[in-house]
């Protein structure tokens, strides 16, 4: 049994706990501001997350598939099972792809993004949800990583790192948002009763220290500019420019 499978299984188990549910509900709210404005034929979510929270519920795209990245599929009734680094889709066939915390628990995140870029249609949309290493959540990971506790046992990637990968793959980051400014104080605390002023203050004054982020990227299309044919018009040549015949 591979390591990424075990990590993904443990992470999905953690998402069912109060702190994980809090994270998913915030991310669902963030997606509600984006998905209704995206159109197409096919929407794919790579990685099931929870039985309680449907991240794709606000999308108007009719054909939606939740693809589990391994054989464990109790989280969200996946419609397809596959390796995430070798997607079972033809190139340029998917309109929107959502990656909820997949990169943190896979050994080769760049290869996953390469596969996503391959299957996206031109001008297709990629949405990545991740955890910020430069935050309270990242600080918790620093102390708890060696204890192999979730979600701290994954590898957190910064927004700058994700953007650099996207640029190399021809994906343009067009929008991002930051959220989750409350520290992860423990699963026994009723986080839903905490005031929202920390979120408001964080978004306004210190967005770079957010625990979570969302980034939207578009697959760029290289458009060839037509060559102006006038450059080869022989009539523009001056007769006087030709050499005179020698007597």
Automatic annotation (TrEMBL):
Indicate yes or no for the key word Methyltransferase: yes
Protein name from the UniProt record = Methyltransferase type 11
Q: Which residues form a coiled coil?
A: none
> What Gene3D superfamilies does UniProt report for this protein, alphabetically?
Vaccinia Virus protein VP39 (3.40.50.150)
Q: Which residues form the Methyltransferase type domain?
A: 79-128
Please name one Pfam family that this protein belongs to: Methyltransf_11
Q: Does the keyword Transferase apply?
A: yes
Q: Which GO terms describe its biological process?
A: methylation
> Which key words tag this protein in UniProt?
Methyltransferase, Transferase
Where does the sequence pass through the membrane? none
Q: What does the record give under GO molecular function?
A: S-adenosylmethionine-dependent methyltransferase activity
